TrEMBL record:
This is Uncharacterized protein. It comes from the Eukaryota. The lineage of its organism: Eukaryota, Metazoa, Spiralia, Lophotrochozoa, Mollusca.
Length: 208
């Protein structure tokens, strides 16, 4: 019995020794990998700070409109992040499958979601309002351009940036089936309808 107990302790000691050596080796290898890792460049550091891309099939809200931030809105066919809420830069893209109304024009809050299948007219660009969903195929007039705010409608098939939200400028609302921009957004006017099946650029809401 005594011999068996001594032998078991010898085996246990050997196992602890092997475990300790293995642990020390793993720690040494990890430390070496950290030392050999190249330092991040400025661009890599900026990319590391970028938020993840938003799944447009998800119901998760996203924050936009904070000047200088990089919100996670993306081109529907591109994996590149775009900056929104910065004057003169690209507008947010929209979730065409969501039916939830959102607040627009408030810094740091959710962007408008556009429902192309809705038939409700909407007012956009009024700070703090809860507009219904926008329907580009509706026959109902839509008010835009109130107090310098512009709705971020974009060409989902184009990779060209469009400038919106610059006070006094005419932001381009885009025909979703055309590559030609259309001009709209005169404050307080009721622009005519945009033909989404036409490939000709049209100017709407502009005093002729």
């Amino acid at each position: 019995m005594h011999h068996s107990l001594v032998r078991w302790r010898e085996i246990e000691g050997d196992n602890l020794t092997v475990f300790g050596l293995g642990l020390a080796l793993a720690v040494a290898l990890h430390a070496q990998q950290i030392r050999e890792r190249p330092p991040l460049s400025r661009r890599s550091k900026q990319e590391a700070k970028m938020p993840p891309l938003v799944d447009l099939k998800s119901r998760s809200p996203v924050r936009v409109g904070v000047e200088g931030e990089m919100p996670p809105l993306v081109n529907l066919k591109s994996r590149s992040p775009v900056r929104v809420g910065v004057e003169g830069e690209m507008p947010p893209l929209v979730n065409l499958k969501s039916r939830s109304p959102v607040r627009v024009g408030v810094e740091g809050e959710m962007p408008p979601l556009v429902d192309l299948k809705s038939r409700s007219p909407v007012r956009v660009g009024v700070e703090g309002e809860m507009p219904p969903l926008v329907n580009l195929q509706s026959r109902s007039p839509v008010r835009v351009g109130v107090d310098g705010e512009r709705p971020p409608l974009v060409n989902l098939q184009s990779r060209s940036p469009v400038r919106v939200g610059v006070e006094g400028e005419m932001p381009p609302l885009v025909d979703l089936k055309s590559r030609s921009p259309v001009r709209v957004g005169v404050e307080g006017e009721m622009p005519p309808l945009v033909d989404l099946k036409s490939r000709s650029p049209v100017r709407v809401g502009v005093e002729e």
